[in-house]
Amino acid sequence: MLPKINFVKSVGIDVGMKNFAYDSDGFVTPNPLNLQKMLKPLARIQRKISRRQKGSNNRKKAVRFYQIMHERIRNKRRDFLHKLSTKYAKKYDAVFVEKLQKMNMVKNHCFAKNILDSGWGTFTTCLTTSVF
What global pTM score does this model have? Predict the structure, then answer.
């Protein structure tokens, strides 16, 4: 038998691009847009890679640095999403998030990069797995 859920402490979350989350209590969480902030350094590293001779050790070093930069972006995004989902999971008994068709929204080339950079799907996954 499933335990009863106390809906006294519940919140609804609306996700967006400019601000990551708007909740029903009136709190607004700004969107960090980690990839957007790192586009210039990533472009610089890609130019560096393209100038290196294919198969050389210097190219391998440049590619490895490029991979490290992407890993840092991923880690920052994950850290933000985990901290935010943990905050909501500890504070509220029930959290309701709007259901979005993310793959259909990504088809719009103007918003695709920001939608994917926000990580809405990862956020909802973090919320469902964080049980306290």
Answer: 0.83
